[in-house]
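Q&A log
Question type: sequence-to-structure
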Amino acid sequence: MRYVAVFILSLIFWLLLTFRFTVSNLIVGSVASIICSAIFARYYLDGVYKFLQPKRYFWFIIYLFIFIWECIKANIDVAYRVLHPAMPIRPGIVKVRTTLKSDFAKMLLANSITMTPGTISVDIIGDNLFIHWIYIRSEDPEVYTGMITGAFEKYIKRIIE
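Response status: OK
Response body:
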């Protein structure tokens, strides 16, 4: 089942990249998808059936809007800090505890945090993420965990787990 899921997802990704629905493009995409399935399917997620649940797609779309909004807010914040004459930054690395269980969900959270300006995921060790933050606003771990992970963790849990 993993091989079929990776094949289908790879072919969809190929068609979205090329956006050409010709016979030759479908053949090339199918061959590339078969090769990807043969190489990468064993590393794919357990529980492929989760991708067949429509509610996960609904939460993914909501997550995309939340992510875009958080990126816009973070871009404005970083622009303010860069353009301010005093450059008000207080950088540091904070340890954020996550309640996510799967490695894929933790990786998705870490990448979402990294793609938000002003933060970079440095490492994931167990249930802890180490995040470099441009402006540490609080010394309380619960407060800054909520600030950094925000709604990401809640929606990732609904999508993945």
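Response note: The first strand starts at residue 92 and ends at 97.
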